[in-house]
Write a structure and sequence with these properties.
Pfam families: HTH_5 (PF01022). The protein has seven helices and six strands. The chain is of the alpha+beta class and 222 residues long. The protein folds into two domains: 80 residues, Orthogonal Bundle (Arc Repressor Mutant, subunit A); 130 residues, Muramoyl-pentapeptide Carboxypeptidase, domain 2, CATH 3.30.1380. It is globular, with a radius of gyration of 20 Å. The N and C termini lie far apart (61 Å).
Length: 222
Amino acid sequence: MTLKTQKKTAAEKTRARILTLLKQQGPQEAPALAASLGVTDMAIRQHLYALEELGDICHCKVARPKGRPAKLWQLTEQAQTHFPNTHADFSTGLISSIKKTFGDQGMEKLLDVRLREQVTDYQTQIDADDPLAEKLAALSDLRSREGYMTDILPGDRKDSFLFVENNCPVCEAARVCSGICARELDLFKSVLGDKVSVNRTEHIIKGARRCAYTVVPKGEED
């Protein structure tokens, strides 16, 4: 491998890490990205401008109470193609064919069957007697392996959590079949148990950067 090729590969890896950070953490300023990646401000700006030229990111300016506006870098729609999206064209085409052949009721029945299969599969890997934090950690591991790029954050209420999916590998299918998202919520409720309340607060399909769920022990909702 030539020195030029090595430099190109290193640059590509850095740019891939930038895209991943923006996907996981949302819009960021250049200095914050530089600090996260351990590179200089000058180096990060070179990478950002290169990604902008490729059409993968763009920037916007956000007013601050004092001083100059913040220059935030964020992903474009095009950049979503760099993240897992499980056979989008095939999935949407298959859903369309199922609806035409079996109708909406047939589609709902198939989704119910799939939900039962997922619940059974997840329950074999998530111990129902574990504390909530451990259940969420196991769920996070399962979902991340499926391409959802999950995070678990502290919630606003006592002993609560925010379960985050930064990527949706079935996004295009979910856009044409809302039942997919409904079953996802049902899946989480089933595997986390009836002692917690699970609610979706952010939704990629509705324009949010991520999907997020509040997970609150019952009795602590108010």
